[in-house]
Amino acid sequence: GREDFRPRIVPYYRDPNKPYKKVLRTRYIQTELGFHERLFVAVLTSKATLNTLAVAVNKTVGHHFPRLLYFTGLRSAKVPHGMVLVAHGDERPIWLMYETMHYIHQHFGSDYDWFYIMQDDTYAQAEQVKALVTHLSINQDVYLGRAEEFIGGDEQARYCHGGFGYLISRSLLLKLHLHLDSCRNEILSVRPDEWLGRCIIDFLGITCVSQLQGQHYHTYELAKNTEPEKEEEEEFQAALAVHPVSDMTLMYRLHKHFRRIQLDRAYQEIQDLQMQIRNLTSLTPAGEAGLTWPVGINAPFLPKSRFEVISWDYFTEQHLFSCPDGSPKCELSGASKADVSEIIESALEQLNSRYQPLLRFSKRQLLNGYRRFDPTRGMEYTLDLLLEAVTQKGHSHVLAKRVSLVRPLSKVEIIPMPYVTEATRVQLVLPLTVQDLDFVANFLDMFAMNTLDTHDNALLTLLFIYHPYDAQRVSQVDVFAGVKAMIGELEKRYAEVKIPWISVKTEVPSQVKLMDIVSKKHPVDTLFFLASVWTEINMDNWQVFFPVHFQEFNPALMYRGEQTASSSTDFLRDGHFDRHSFAEACFYNSDYMTARTKLAADILDRDEVLESMEVFDVFLHYSGLHLFRAVEPGLVQKYALRSCNPRLSEELYHRCVLSNLEGLASRSHLAMALFEQEQANST
């Protein structure tokens, strides 16, 4: 009979006599469960067509596939930008196919479920290929493509034509790999696709099919001098792969044609869905009043208080009246200018499509423009346009018209980013000044509880920043003697832990200069976590590059003698995210050294420039990396009044002062404090 699988709870038991050892688990559950990525694509090219047809493939469909590699026998001196190329060193077609299949199995055989092989003179509809594999079962040995007969061979056997691409399942690839060497020695063929087909048939008994599990592999063979725009055959419109593509221009024309077909289908599907929503809205409790605009887009955000109201930004065609630097007026440029121009153009296009041929509109002037970002639906716009309307008889009239537009949030795309595994050792760097001494004990306690007690893979280095006056008296009175004693106690409590420190003498503790000292004392593959004495260390924070920490408000103003709220669910009400602080950062030493080298070449010997910079500025202007800066609720700092060094640059000093002021309390609590003070003064 069939075995009945039922879940059961396995009780956790740990032998108290054995030392504690942290279990390292994978970051993603799909890795632990053995899930694979969906599709890998291999493009067979050559030295002669690498810079032409292969580039065209990369520019048209390359970014639509999750993983795509190019395989060639010989490579040119310069590889086109943005292409991952594997050269086997031999242009013989059979050898190229053999080496490619061997390489795919060796490097990707355990990571993907499906493998799509195509030539660089093939145009494949990427979205259709991805949709095809989602409808196929991975439990079968699949060899799917355009089935062709062998010349003079068995009438029942078929091979997949390489020009139209073919799909191989992971299970088939694993079995095929065992026979590749035998196929290379025993099977003679001129065409690589025939050789592969004969290998699969002779050793595995599997023939190529064009239809499987209700899914059809549609192809179309292009004739010479074909005009893609004029092709109206149903077979061409439904083709998943088109071959042969003779030149780059034809590849781009095919891509444009099929993209237009898919775009028209998408627009039609949107209209059908909107019609269904309109028909169903009348059956809902809210009735027609519940229909939002645009149909199918989320309703606008409804604020629960005046503090949640999303403000509108005013703009004209030349200026923006809500500037990133806080100034009341700035020139409209860059992405904002392109955004406004596109919105005005879209508004005119929509008006003309609605009223033509009776009226045709042209823009005279943008009278007023308003925009705001609604996180529930996207960017909203309201435009007051001065238009000239022309009738069919040529009569014109100038009128003002208000239009509303929405640029909706599109499909969310998860960007693959490298992550730090738990096996990666993190080097925590903590700069300390005399003003920080009152908070060091709490920091070390939190570090011991959250990292040392849990045996996390993290090290701590302290950076003692001595003022020149304190440095001269260090032999008599060491201002950091208490901190060094605390470190000694920690090293006694945790015998396997060593906490080094570095002493620095400076009047201006520049973040970049301090990081230069630390960087030279560690290997290039070190992962640094730059923290401040107010940071509550938690290993969940290592993933953030430049986090915006959560700053708690002054409890004296928030609670005024009352007991602090103990609920962990509403702690975010008692503070704010401090966007003025760049004290925390997470980066690799190799990346910092590369950016620092470029900075040194730029500033030459003008070290005073470093006093006006932070590590964030170094990465932003000299690294070429994508910087990630976002709010991090898990990175919480207790309230403390920072000491702002006036010897730093004006911008850094001003940012420090703003951080102190905005970290006092919320508006309501500040108003209450002022009210109570006035009441006390009046009595």
From TrEMBL:
Cellular location(s)? Golgi apparatus, Golgi stack membrane
UniProt topology in membrane? Single-pass type II membrane protein
Top-rank taxon of the source lineage equals Eukaryota
Q: Which UniProt keywords apply?
A: Glycoprotein, Golgi apparatus, Membrane, Signal-anchor, Transferase, Transmembrane, Transmembrane helix
Give the EC number: 2.4.1.-
Q: Which InterPro entries match?
A: Chond_GalNAc, CS_glycosyltransferase
Cellular compartments per GO CC:
Golgi cisterna membrane
Any one GO MF annotation of this record: N-acetylgalactosaminyl-proteoglycan 3-beta-glucuronosyltransferase activity
Please state which protein family the record places this protein in. Answer: Belongs to the chondroitin N-acetylgalactosaminyltransferase family.
Q: Which PANTHER family match?
A: CHONDROITIN SULFATE GLUCURONYLTRANSFERASE, CHONDROITIN SYNTHASE
The protein's name in its UniProt record: Hexosyltransferase
Q: Which organism is it from?
A: Phaethon lepturus (White-tailed tropicbird)
